[in-house]
Design a protein that fits this description.
The protein is α/β, with parallel strands linked by helices. It has helices spanning 15-33, 61-72, 91-96, 128-138, 140-149, 152-168, 181-193, and strands spanning 2-5, 38-42, 77-80, 99-101, 105-109, 112-117, 199-202, 209-212, 217-220, 229-233, 239-243. Helix 1 packs parallel to helix 2. Bound molecules: manganese (II) ion. The site of manganese (II) ion (MN) has 7 residues, from loops.
Length: 244
Amino acid sequence: MYYFTSDVHLGAGDEAFARRTEQRFVKWLDKVAEDADAIFLVGDIFDFWFEYGKVIPKGFARTLGKLAELTDRGVKIYFFIGNHDMWSRDYLERECGVKILYKPQRMTLAGKELFIAHGDNMNVGNKPMLKLMNTGFRSRTLRLLFSWLVHPDLALRFGQWWSGKSRKSHAKDRITPKSLDFLLDYARDYKKEHPSTDYIIFGHMHYPYDYSTKDLRVTFLSNWDDEVQYAALDREGNLSLKTF
Ligand SMILES: [Mn+2]
C-alpha cells in the first residue's frame, strides 16, 4: 500500500490543539506503517519550519521521533515541502531519514503513473505579485541572508504569525469546490502533455475531493483540523480517499 496525507500543520492553534493534532498524526503514521510500501507527506506537515545551519524550531518531538523510528525500521517516507515548510534543509533527511522532495514528482507506483504535488505555486503565471513573492520565498540566497541576519526567536515569531495568516486564508468557510478550479485546470493541461498519467494528487487546499471523469482523476487531500481524509493506493493500483 501507498499512503498520502498533507497539511497536518503541526504547531498550529493553541498548545492543547497542536498537541492533539500531533498525537493523531503519529497514531496515523503507526497505523499506515503496518502495511506501507511508502508514505507520502505531501506538504505543509509543519505549520512553520525554518532551519538554520545548527538550529531547528522547538517542538515536534513526537513527530521527529516517529519519523526516525519508522525509517530506521525500513519504512520509506517521502516529505514534499509545502508553502509552510519550504525552508527545510537537510535535518529531516539526515536525522529522521525521510526523503525530502522540493518539487512535484512523477512516479510509477503499483503499475500506475502518478503526478504528486503540494499544489502551491501552480498556475501563477497570471498573478505577478504572487509569482514574485513565491520566487523570493524560494530563493536560496534570501534564505541564507535571512538566517545570517535574523535571530531564530525573531524568525520563528515572524514565521508563526505569517503562517497563521496564510492558513486562515484556507479556512473551511472560504474554500468551495470552485476554489479547486485553478488546480483542476493545471491537472487538465498536465494530462494533455502527459496522457499516460493515471492519478494526480494535490494537498494545499484543505478540501478533500475526489474529482473523476472518464479520462482525468484528481484527488485532493484534507488538512488535519478535524476529520482527516487521506489517500491510499493499493497494490492493484486502486486509489481511494479514506477517513481517519
Ligand atoms: Mn496547507
